[in-house]
Amino acid sequence: MIHLLVTGGSGYIGGEILAQLGGLVIPELQVFVTVRQDQHEVAVKEFPSGLFTPVRLDLSDKEPIKSFISENEIDVVFELTSAFNADIALPSIEALASCGEGKSYISMSSRSRHLYYCHSLNQKPQQRTDQRSQTLLSLRRLLHVKNPVR
Question: How far apart are CA 95 and CA 31, in angstroms?
Fold first, then answer.
């Protein structure tokens, strides 16, 4: 089972990524989506695929994030929060890095034309130019899904 944590899933890019993920049939995938508002929690629960589990986490507090990542054996953090507050990403990165090798971190923002951070924590960052398609391609590679069923 692959465990994915999506932060910022209720935003513009987050909604698109969830829609794309929801169209894939990947039985070995469990997706947790951070939410801040009740209406977003309801929307995540009611998503047609039933693939997503909403969670409430203070993304600026390292300890709850580290506990959540550890307890739920998160393999990939998909960071879609605002690029204006880069500090909000640090707890997720540090928590994931402390869990050992084989963990991945993906970050993107609608405020940027490029996806800058899409790599294993042990590899050099790669710049991507087509946000949506490259992000989904990178995610599929991380999930080892060559031919997802739509």
Answer: 18
E strands, the chain, in order:
2-7, 29-34, 52-55, 76-79, 104-107, 117-120
Domain boundaries, the chain: 2-143
Q: Which residues contact 147 (CB under 8 A, 6 or more apart)?
A: none
For residue 85, the number of C-alpha atoms closer than 13 Å in the C-beta half-sphere is: 8
CA distance 80 to 93: 13
Nearest to 147 by CA among 25, 20, 18: 25
This prediction's pTM? 0.70
Q: Residue 119: pLDDT above 90? A: no
Architecture of domain 2-143: 3-Layer(aba) Sandwich (3.40)
Residues making up the chain, counted from first to last: 150
Q: Is 111 helix (H, G, I), strand (E, B) or coil?
A: coil
